[in-house]
Structure formats: C-alpha cells, structure tokens
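Example 3.2
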Amino acid sequence: MSVTIRRATPDDVDFLVELTSHDDVDPFLSARRATTREELLEEIERSDREPEDFGRFLVEVDGARAGVMGFAVANKRSRVAKLGGLAVHPDFRGGKVSDEAARLLQRHLMDDLGYHRLELEIYGFNERAMRHAERSGFVREGVKRKAYRRHGEWVDGVLYGLIPDDLADS
C-alpha cells in the first residue's frame, strides 16, 4: 500500500464534498470548515495562490482518493502552522493511512516550507483523532475546557504541538 499526498485540484471537489459530508466523517470535523462546492473550490484556489501559507492536500492510497487534510499559517514570523481537516474515507481506515499521510505533511511543512512548529486542536470527544495525533508524533500540550459548542453540548479542545525535535523521534 502506497500512501501519497498532493495538493487538491478542482477535479477533487466532488470527492471532498462527499467525504466531508459522510455520516462517519462529518461529526468529527470542525463546524467552521468549508462544506459547499464553492467554499471548497475557494480553498483549493487559495492553496494554489498561497502555497507557503495555506494548503489543502488530498491523501491517496495506490492512486485512489482516500482522504483530505490541510494547514494554514498561524504565525508567519515564528513559522507556526495550524493543521486541520484530516479526514479519511471509512473504506480506507484501519491501515494507518492517516498516520502515514500526517508524517508526509509534517515533513513537507518542516523540510520544504521551513515551518518550525505545527499545531492542531481536536475535539475532546474524538478519541480516534487523539490516538492518531500521538501515533504520528504530536505531543499533547493542553486542553481548552468546554471551548466549543458541538452537537448541542460544550466540548473541550485538546491541543497538540510538534517541533523538529519531535519529528526526529517519530
């Protein structure tokens, strides 16, 4: 099984709409994410316009579309990027596709784009995502208690970070 990542293109929009609205994916993604074709196309265009500051990446397994993830610059001066939007289609789960894809994105951001720190935040109820973050090298740094209203309840945001020293160990 070969996992690769590439920048999303307009040809990927139908897949992205289907994936992010899937019943087994949607509940775990940010409520503020792009959801419509138009919003997703704008993200793809921005990814092309601002490749060092913003990215939407498609995850592929043996050439087949399998997932999506992205980043945005959080602090340009300090070279910090915020990651998010990782979603793997249920048909591709269980084979550590997300772990390999995350490592590929980490290397691209740090080695190719020169980021010093990568951050992500996960809803406290998303245990699968928290296990993934730790498997792929992120260090749990804290919790924003009851920070978000999701599914009719207040939920925590669990904060993770990764610096080059962490990447060397993964």
